[in-house]
Amino acid sequence: MPSFASLLALAAPLMVLGAPVNKRDTATNLLVLKFADVLEQFESQFYQQALQKFQTSDFTSAGFVDAQVPVQQFTQIQSDEASHETVLESVIQSLGDQAITSCNINFGNALNDVPTMAATARVVENLGVAAYLGAAHLIDDPVLLTAAGSILTVEARHQTILNVLNNGVSIPQAFDIALLPNEVLAIASAFISGCDLGVQANQPLTITNTGAVQPGTQLTFSSPAINGSTDGLFCQMLIGGMATAIPLPFDQCIVPQGIEGPVAIFITSDIQPLNNNVRDRATQVVLAGPTMAFIDTQKQLLGELVLAGSSSGSNGADRIRCFHRLCH
User: Fold this and answer.
1) Which Pfam families match (predicted)?
2) Please, which pLDDT band fits residue 323 given cuts at 50, 70 and 90?
């Protein structure tokens, strides 16, 4: 039987989010909450299926020194995501609406093997952080905003764990990337379909390079939005902490030196740099994306303790290839 302490810990976020809120909450607040809930459903189901499928031997074969390290982390993360889902749906109901439960969530080949799953989990957690950050300015109720922030901080912890489990730098940048809901869906729509989230997704974008993406790599892309001449098109790399994206001609999209960690990449019709501030970002010039890339040039002792042979970069290229193709 669960202890009183564990029950109290489980109930704490419910009490915070269940506190009275201003009845003037707008439709936008509900839209953001319902959108966040679908993402939490996606995350929770992803980890649940992964833990059901993979055995200890699968994690060992993937290069983990001790299989219990990733298993424990994925188990805790799944529990967190399920709690987030429960709380968000409770708040949505308290505001007189219902959560969206009609989405088809298909993980495709993302659960083919442990390295593929871990690579997908990394983008999922980085996407979760970007989604909460990018939607914060849309929430006009301070109670709801604080509650969403309490979820965001936990998603950021998950992000750090997944960086380590993929042999990346645990905290590669001092600032995170924020993405608008339509930008989040450009990536998430590869897995989520069949439901109306009230948001029109940007056209998806895929990096078609094989092998690891590193500084000096010239990127190539595919997208339904790119169906003819690429003259006048640009790739833009958005990095946490930079005031604006790095714009480059489409056919000269070369990863610059000095980048570490996640990069959100867009295709635009204008060379004017996209603003890192989501409120002021010129979304009208975005043709496709973003897609996410991870630039892993540094090795840390923590990663070497978790993954056997990680100092030589084993498994890294395979994980990056999987991620760029959205594991389909």
Assistant:
1) Ferritin_2 (PF13668)
2) low
Residue extent(s) of CATH 1.20.1260.10 domains in the chain = 4-165
Strand (E) positions, 13-131? 104-105
Burial class (CB in 10 A: 0-12, 13-18, 19+), 314: middle
- Per DSSP, which regions of 103-241 are E strands? 104-105, 192-193, 206-207, 221-222, 234-238
81-92 pLDDT per residue, tens: 999 999 999 999
Q: Which residues pair with 295 in a beta bridge?
A: 261
Q: What are phi and psi of 326, to 5 degrees?
A: 55, 25
Q: Per DSSP, what are the bridge partners of residue 288?
A: 267
* Cα distance between residue 9 and residue 30, in whole Å: 26
Architecture field, domain 4-165: Up-down Bundle (1.20)
Predicted TM-score (pTM) of the model is 0.88
Nearest to 40 by CA among 188, 204, 206: 188
**How many CB atoms lie under 10 A from the CB of residue 22?**
12
Distances in Å between the alpha carbon of 171 and those of 70, 120, 147, 219? 18, 18, 24, 24
